[in-house]
Design a protein that fits this description.
The chain is of the alpha/beta class. It folds into three domains: 1-118, acylaminoacyl peptidase (de novo design (two linked rop proteins), Up-down Bundle); 120-257 and 322-400, Rossmann fold (3-Layer(aba) Sandwich), CATH 3.40.50.1820; 260-319, no CATH class. It contains 16 helices and eight strands. Helix 6 (164-174) links the parallel strand 3 and strand 4 (178-182). It starts with 7 loop residues before the first helix and ends with a helix.
Length: 400
Amino acid sequence: MKVAFKDDSFAFELVRNLGFAYYGGADIGEMMATAGEITEGDFESWFTAWDKRAKKTLARADADIAKGHTVSARESYLRASTYFRMSEFYLHGNPSDPRILESARASQQSYSKAASLMGATWEPVEVPYEGTTLPGYFYKVDESETPRPTIIFHGGYDSSVEELYYFGAAAAVRRGYNCLTFDGPGQGMPMREQGLPFRYDWEKVVTPAVDFAVARKDVDGERLALIGMSLGGYLAARAAAFEHRFKAAVFFDGVFDYGGAMKNLLPAAATQAYASGDNAGGDKIVQNVMNEVTNVRWAITQGLWSFKSPSIADFLEQTKKMSMEGVAGQIQCPCLVLEADGDLFFKGQPRQIYDALRSPKDFYAFTAEDGAENHCQSGALGFKDEVVFNWIDTVLKPTS
């Protein structure tokens, strides 16, 4: 699906965030007007246009709250948060760029202001983790302390906790589930403020989140589901293999071998060079591709930044640890694996993880016929949530 841009990466990122309009996180008119100011494949142009839109939307929100227009302010704060997050998306090729942290904090703060206007059902939380904490939100069906089935939901390679509301928490609460979202190492503010890079053993991240959730009075610890989005499809699968308190797990989209996915993104000549020990030669080939292909340029710069890798070769070596080979069979709970037939990143990977599972499992393939072919069904969130939560209902809410 291409909207406004011909460039694969820019088109996908626009659709990804356009989809948030379904739950109030974007406005189509604002986004299309902003896209019209952006030069294809130009990272600086992307930042300038979205930063301008974010600041304009934030200014309206601030003016609305000053005049007592609470609902208007709340909605504008949510959209401003989205636009600030979009603005810094392509800046990570220069980790020292101050705009990365400035824009991320502006996104976080805008979302926090909106959350404070939502009432007690949007609760900012800090999940204890290895001597520090991970930022998150706990979304509740209502203000009671009634124990409810609960979703634990995290993102992937480039996510921030603020977008997880649109990708899963909103749908969960509408259907009677509480939802805990959080950012882990390599994601959101843990990466930007604390410098915590990705780790392959994601159970060390999810288990503290489960401990945090089950300690709450409003969580039914016997009805927990785990959802992982994008690279989170691997991260959640890895966690579920070692953390067995979940009664259900959803991987959208499924990821079996991240190292293999990165290898498929690069020319064969580059992978051959790395395999022979010629890291300099491999780096040169990859750099040439990065100069020509936006998606590769973004994927590599994002990886160098979020894994804190000193070189492309080191980053690619780290991704090899992110594999479910020999691990998938340890998952015990029922699993739902999603696939998107137009996936830019993990083509073929959902079927691999599905085939490797030994627990009860289901598979759903989304296609262009329904406009749901994008990675993580971006732009078709209503349909995706229908499939996901109908399945979760059957697992966590069995009829007697």
